[in-house]
Specification:
Blueprint lengths: L9 H10 L4 H4 L9 H4 L3 H13 L10 H7 L5 E2 L5 H7 L11 H21 L8 H26 L18 H18 L20 H14 L3 H13 L23 E5 L2 E5 L14 E2 L3 H5 L10 E2 L1 H6 L13 H5 E2 L6 E2 L2 E2 H4 L4 H4 L3 E2 L21 E5 H14 L3 H14 L5 H4 L5 H15 L6 H7 L6 H10 L17 H6 L11
Antiparallel strand pairs: 1-5, 2-10, 3-4, 6-9, 7-8
Helix pairs in contact: 4-7, 4-8, 7-8, 8-9, 9-10, 10-11, 11-17, 17-18, 17-20, 18-20
Subcellular location: Cell outer membrane
Keywords: Cell outer membrane, Membrane, Signal
Protein name: RagB/SusD family nutrient uptake outer membrane protein
């Protein structure tokens, strides 16, 4: 968008040379067929288009269309991969190759595409005359939020990365992870100060639009960034504000968080918007954006059970078994199990057929477990082979805020105060009162309990390995051995490989990026 195009007409050039009176200005022409950055940023319509482009980076293969969920899920002890694609299978085995940037390199590239687009908004929109000052603030606030979100992923997954705060420079210096987290928190705080609680009560072209970043989303991610840095008082303060907004709650049915129905519900704080009915027919694998791209996700086919999808990701038996450690108050298995995975259970249905009947002729499938979250498995689709799921990705739920808030309370020595927030999550699935079955837990016992609660509540949602890493379990020999006993993929863990490598292309092309992550 910033390039000025020089157009040479044979006739014009011939006549100019014939006259022998040519200046550089004569040759520097802007094509009327292309819009430049200088001509684009003119009014509020351009401002909204600009911030929408920053959102669009959430929809491509590098981010939530496919790659980012894979990178977040596969390293945890709740997932495994037997994918024939080595770049995918090796993620969970901590064996990502520097020479093959598939998946992780696409994610890195797309995060920085999103950052670049957000930077353009932050550079240009302040100078646009927009009559509605609140609309202008909302646009700028969304750009801060999105830059913070892309940086959050980059810093959290790649450790020491560049922190571009302008789109005007080609190269950006590699920074420490501490500097990265400081910028993430700064961006989210800026977003908090500019964003509305909801778009239902605003006026302007964005009125009532779902999927845009809100104050609650910015506060939640600000708290999460503090939590990941063990800044528990600051995290608690942010989560306290989210709870105090009074606009979020848990949906009654846990499974509603992962289906096409009930999207953007009262529990969803921020979700990526996918839709089968809008956009073109092509898949958004990346590269130059095209109007032919659809707005759909490839997660469902990638995680889908065999004969309906590729089953590149599967739950572990450790996860399956942990769901059954505690029965509900009515003596039943935790209902989150059936919402999370398909398995051989009487009456278990998927895509309009019964599990046991469909896999009866294949013992390896019949006795396996497969992913159910985010699958179009209610019978409305025969399978996922068209690669076009319209299910929104709920990347931050209110349940997460409640459990992170409980964690902060526990880490601040207020263990007894953590019980009610955990119990809100347990009550939804009819689990016993924790204060009754496990009264008076120590701080360490509560840490273990919160780890268990988070494992079951957020399985296959990209949270588990983040938790493992930030809790320091990989540096704890006893915990690492425990992880190995649950998921053999941890046997190939090498210190430093809790992070992905900096893509070699970035190191080759950017002279200011010189330090590869440890372990590679």
């Amino acid at each position: 968008m910033k390039t000025k195009y020089i157009i040479y007409s044979i006739a014009v050039v011939t006549s100019l040379f014939a006259s022998s009176c040519v200046s550089d200005d004569d040759l520097d022409q802007v094509s009327p067929n292309f819009e430049t950055a200088d001509s684009f940023w003119q009014d509020e319509t351009d401002a909204i288009k600009g911030v929408n482009a920053a959102y669009a980076s959430l929809l491509t293969d590098g981010t939530y269309m496919r790659s980012t969920p894979l990178l977040l899920d596969l390293k945890g002890d709740g997932t495994r991969s037997n994918s024939p694609w080595s770049a995918m299978a090796n993620v969970g085995k901590f064996n990502t190759s520097i020479s093959d940037a598939s998946i992780y390199g696409w994610a890195f590239e797309t995060y920085y595409q999103g950052i670049y687009r957000a930077n353009q908004v932050l550079e240009n929109v302040p100078g646009i005359e927009i009559e509605d000052a609140n609309l202008k603030n909302r646009i700028i606030g969304q750009a801060y939020f999105l830059r913070g979100l892309y940086l959050f992923h980059a810093v959290n997954m790649f450790k020491n990365v560049p922190l571009p705060l302008t789109s005007l420079e080609i190269y950006h210096e590699q920074k420490t992870q501490e500097e990265g987290w400081a910028q993430v928190k700064s961006d989210f705080q800026m977003a908090v100060d500019l964003l509305p609680v909801s778009y239902n009560n605003v006026s302007g072209p964005d009125a009532g639009q779902k999927g845009r970043a809100t104050k609650g989303a910015a506060l939640s991610y600000l708290g999460k960034a503090h939590l990941f840095n063990h800044e528990y008082a600051e995290a608690r303060a942010a989560f306290d504000e989210v709870i105090g907004l009074g606009v979020y709650d848990l949906v009654p049915d846990y499974r509603q968080n992962f289906t096409k129905e009930n999207e953007n519900n009262i529990e969803s704080i921020f979700e990526v918007q996918f839709n089968r009915e809008v956009g073109g027919v092509d898949l958004g694998w990346g590269g130059e954006p095209s109007s032919a791209w659809g707005k759909t996700s490839a997660r469902a086919i990638t995680y889908g059970p065999p004969t309906f999808g590729f089953s590149d990701v599967q739950p572990t038996w450790a996860l399956f078994n942990e769901y059954q450690e505690e029965l509900t108050v009515s003596g039943e298995i935790d209902p989150r199990l059936d919402a999370t995975m398909f398995y051989n259970k009487p009456g278990m249905m998927l895509y309009g057929v019964e599990f046991s009947a469909h896999y009866a002729g294949n013992a390896s499938y019949l006795n396996e477990i497969f992913c159910a979250k985010y699958q179009n498995s209610d019978g409305s689709q025969a399978n996922e082979y068209d690669w076009r799921s319209g299910i929104n990705e709920r990347i931050l739920r209110y349940a997460d805020v409640l459990l992170m808030y409980a964690e902060c309370l526990n880490e601040l020595g207020q263990t007894a105060s953590a019980y009610p927030y955990i119990q809100q999550v347990r009550d939804r699935v009819n689990l016993p009162d924790l204060a009754t079955v496990k009264p008076g837990m120590t701080q360490q016992e509560m840490r273990d309990q919160i780890a268990h609660e988070r494992f079951l509540e957020f399985s296959l949602e990209g949270h588990r390995f983040d938790d493992i890493r930030r809790w320091g379990w990989l540096q704890d020999p006893a915990k690492l051995e425990w992880l190995k006993s649950r998921d053999p993929e941890f046997n190939s863990y090498v210190a430093g490989r809790e992070y992905f490598p900096i893509p070699q292309s970035e190191m080759d092309n950017n002279p200011l990026v010189t330090d590869q992550n440890d372990g590679y």
